[in-house]
Specification:
The complex is a heterodimer of chains A (316) and B (420).
Chain A (H helix, E strand, L loop, with lengths): L23 H15 L16 E6 L4 H13 L3 E6 L11 H9 L5 E6 L4 H8 L5 E7 L5 H15 L6 E5 L6 H12 L4 E5 L15 E3 L2 H5 L4 E4 L15 H8 L3 H4 L7 E3 L12 H4 L6 H21 L1
Parallel strand pairs in A: 1-2, 1-3, 3-4, 5-6, 5-8, 6-7, 8-9
Helix pairs in contact in A: 1-5, 1-11, 2-11, 5-6, 5-11
Chain B lengths: L2 E10 L4 E10 L2 E3 L7 E4 L4 E4 L1 E3 L15 H10 L2 E6 L10 H14 L3 E7 L12 H7 L3 E3 L8 H14 L3 E4 L3 H4 L4 E2 L2 H6 L3 E2 L2 H17 L3 E4 L4 H13 L3 E6 H5 L21 H13 L4 E3 L7 H4 L16 H11 L4 H6 L3 H7 L14 E11 L18 E11 L2 E5 L2
Helix pairs in contact in B: 2-3, 4-7, 7-8, 8-10
Classes of the chains: A alpha/beta (316), B alpha/beta (420).
Chain lengths: 316, 420
């Protein structure tokens, strides 16, 4: 197997493609850098000049307003120029290949490509073909990874819980299709979280998921017991009724987070969700808006984390 | 032409012969007479073996000439020592009409390189709805009938197709794959697919379909050849079926003998194959099954794919690997790893596939057609695009060094390839 495609010859972060295989020091460096940026977003002048004159291309082969917007805000706060490309609606539909699209944009002098793609591994293909001074940040590829989301989840957990080495974290719902879950699991295990649990029906858990270093629960009540952190995953509409699940109602009954289920976790447990939420499907409104919920702070931290990732790769 | 191949290590897997000696060719056949040769080939230090018989090689004609042409792939075949090949029906249009089969055979004949044995489509357009005119297709030269990589979902139709083929004594070649279970999958449903976020194809997609096929063999008595076995459990099922005396044979793609899901690495699209590369345990069982004869032969499953179709995200990349020129070194590598005698190693790509095809080639004995491969078993070579004659440069072994290279290939007594 070739070397880690995310790192340059000096072992520094060249691209951010996955949290898997990232050395612990780099994970901590990103979280620390994000912490230093957290103040910036609260200042009156919310800008630092770290990426002045650099161009960030938001390359979204799959529509996403939220993630694209947070990357855009993060880049602008670093004083970078941001170009948004909704590729799904343009060149790809005219039959241009992925690599041709990238080559064309590369000719327009990009420094950072933020890539979202429906196919797992697409950012790896792009990273293999960009010029040495160009950087690729994976903003979500298929079911594989969403590393900046994973990192902002880690940041949120560290913010509220301090010591990773004492935690029990439960990830609940559609792990099978979730790039968020995979990215978070790798991050948590690398940072030394002793117990990571996944909770869901067999139809929504991938084959051999235990090999990722998690404990599997099908009974949500048993799985939530004494957890410090509960991460709810979004259930896509198209999975709600078919071969994987009979109905959203039945899913909610067994795997939706309600106040009485949450009561089984530790009293100071936090509740997270990558958004957008399906209220009444994976999470009950009183919990989403309740005192344990840190769902909105996650969004705020997300900007600082994306600033950290962009400034680090652009500086390497 | 009368040719004398002098002083080589002559290996005839069919008889077990393995000795230094001469082979004399006269009138396109192996001859025992010692007449005056018009040409002498010095084979000192080389192996003289029957030409390889590859039961699955896509020549991409008709329909996919931009990926490869008959010329390029026949050049690749003889450069790889392959003197006979069976081509699956998944061309465009598929080989479902006698005219297409006839044209393919004529074109191949004009090129006068390897012998081509077309495998006809079992159903019209491989669509799985209507049987083809198998008897007509057989008259045009089809040696068997197959669905290639489009397994039948309709078991009623599969049953009828096997009954119909069996009526005429035609063998049916099937890949065992449950279409519903495999639907949407691109990799073995296991740890690696879970990590990479790739939709999986479970092992039981193969074994459930295999169970169905074996039951239908029991019901119909039709001779079936199972193509591209990929799982350990599948190998065990074939072993039991043979013990029971069912008329089944099977093959494995040579890549599956050497590679596993772990070789996907960071989404190496060259490892996107059909069936998918499975676990280490499966790989080991396939390599062992090929050694003990459960699996009758190894095939290249040669599938040239143009660069554009591989420079894609893994799931979108076109499946398949080029293989005609890698079959010999990869089979030798397998034999060396399992410490098999050379004759036994070579049997899996010569006399064993000859038996399945029912042809007289694949052996070195007086009177047999003179299809021979003379190769240097110790020559190392690096697999780089320029070293391959096939138009497809798509192989997981790109950059590897392999051992064993063909010097001379002879088909029907004519020298069709000589290493430059």
């Amino acid at each position: 197997m070739p070397g880690n495609p995310q790192l340059n010859a000096n072992g520094e972060l060249q691209h951010l493609l996955s949290t898997e295989g990232l050395p612990r020091e780099i994970l901590v460096q990103i979280l620390d850098t994000a912490e230093s940026f957290a103040g910036v977003t609260e200042r009156e002048v919310k800008k630092v000049p770290l990426m002045r004159g650099k161009s960030v291309f938001n390359l979204f082969f799959e529509p996403s307003t939220r993630t694209r917007t947070t990357f855009e805000i993060a880049a602008k706060r670093l004083s970078a120029d941001v170009i948004n490309l909704n590729v799904a609606a343009s060149s790809q539909s005219k039959g241009e290949s992925l690599l041709d699209t990238v080559a064309n944009l590369s000719a327009m002098q990009a420094d950072v490509f933020v890539v979202r793609h429906g196919s797992s591994g697409a950012p790896y293909l792009i990273a293999r073909h960009v010029k040495p001074h160009e950087h690729v940040i994976n903003a979500g590829d298929g079911r594989h990874a969403h590393p900046t989301q994973g990192l902002l989840d880690l940041y949120t957990i560290r913010h509220y819980k301090k010591d990773f080495a004492q935690l029990t974290v439960a990830i609940v719902g559609d792990v099978l299709h979730s790039r968020v879950a995979r990215s978070l699991i790798h991050g948590l295990t690398s940072l030394g979280v002793p117990e990571v649990r996944v909770i869901g029906p067999q139809t929504l858990l991938p084959a051999g998921v235990e090999a990722l270093g998690v404990r599997v629960f099908h009974d949500m009540r048993a799985g939530l017991k004494d957890c410090d952190v509960v991460v709810m995953l979004r259930l896509q509409n198209e999975r709600m009724d078919g071969a994987l699940l009979p109905s959203a109602q039945e899913f909610f009954k067994h795997y939706g987070l309600t106040a009485d289920k949450l009561a089984l976790a530790r009293p100071d447990a936090i509740v997270m969700h990558p958004g957008p939420m399906n209220r009444g499907v994976e999470i009950d409104s009183p919990v989403a808006d309740g005192p344990h919920s840190v769902i909105l702070p996650q969004v705020t931290f997300g900007i600082a984390v994306r600033m950290a990732v962009m400034s680090i790769v652009a500086g390497n | 032409m009368k040719i004398l191949i002098r002083g080589g290590r002559v290996i005839d897997p069919a008889s077990g012969r393995d000795e230094i000696g001469d082979v004399f060719i006269s009138d396109g056949r192996i001859s025992s007479a010692k007449e005056k040769a018009e040409r002498t080939i010095d084979a000192k230090g080389l192996v003289v073996a029957p030409g390889l018989i590859d039961l699955s090689a896509r020549l991409r004609e008709p329909g996919y000439e931009y990926k490869a042409t008959l010329e390029s792939e026949m050049d690749a075949a003889v450069a790889g020592g392959v003197t006979s090949l069976a081509c699956p029906p998944d061309t465009d249009p598929p080989l479902d009409e006698p005219g297409l089969v006839d044209m393919l055979r004529r074109r191949a004949k004009v090129l006068a390189r390897a012998r081509v044995y077309p495998v006809g489509a079992l159903t019209v357009k491989l669509a799985g709805e209507r049987l083809t005119e198998m008897a007509e297709l057989a008259e045009a030269g089809c040696v068997a009938f197959s669905q290639a990589n489009a397994p039948l979902a309709d078991t009623q139709l599969l049953w009828r197709a096997m009954q119909y083929a069996g009526t005429f004594g035609f063998p049916v070649w099937l890949r065992a794959e449950d279409r519903w279970l495999a639907h949407g999958g691109v990799a073995h449903d296991g740890e690696v697919a879970t990590r990479l976020g790739l939709p999986g194809i479970p092992s039981f997609a193969e074994t459930i379909a295999l169970g169905t096929v074996l039951q239908l063999v029991r019901a119909t008595g039709t001779r079936v050849h199972i193509c591209r076995l990929s799982t350990a459990v599948g190998a065990e099922m074939v072993r039991a079926a043979k013990k029971e005396g069912l008329p089944v044979s099977c093959d494995v793609g040579i890549h599956h003998v050497h590679l596993s899901e772990l070789d996907l690495g960071y989404y190496d699209a060259h490892c996107r194959l059909e069936p998918p590369l499975r676990s280490q345990r499966d790989r080991e069982a396939l390599a062992a099954g090929l050694a003990d004869g459960t699996i009758d032969c190894a095939v290249s499953d040669h599938t040239p794919v143009d660069e554009d179709q591989k420079q894609m995200p893994f799931a979108e990349a076109e499946p398949g690997a080029t293989g005609l020129e890698l079959l010999l070194p990869l089979v030798l590598k397998w034999g060396a790893e399992r410490k098999l005698p050379l004759a036994k190693t070579l049997a899996r790509v010569t006399s064993d596939p000859a038996r399945i095809l029912g042809v007289q080639t694949g052996r070195i004995e007086p009177g047999a057609p003179a299809d021979l491969a003379v190769f240097d078993p110790g020559q190392h070579w690096r697999i780089v695009p320029e070293a391959l004659k096939s138009q497809g440069k798509n192989t997981p072994f790109l950059g590897y060094e392999l051992t064993g290279r063909v010097r001379t290939t002879i088909v029907a007594g004519n020298v069709v390839y000589e290493q430059a």
